[in-house]
# Entry
Amino acid sequence: MNKIILITGSTDGIGKLAALKLVEAGHQVYLHGRDADKIDSVIAEVKAVATGAAADNISGFVAGFLQKPGNCGVAYVGNSGSGICPHDAF
# Structure
């Protein structure tokens, strides 16, 4: 069964790779990141890899989610990075 999957931190690294692999497997992915231009670039790349791929940004996810009544099976991949500061920075 194909899933609707929201991936944060999807402009680079593991998040981007996850988006590509999940779309290849037939899932519908929605991407989130801090840089809208990078998100658009990844969406284009995802759609080029899998013909007919369903990929959009978080705004598209929210709009689509609000239009679907009832149970909407959604998977969430929390892949946002975190900053690490040296102890002496505090």
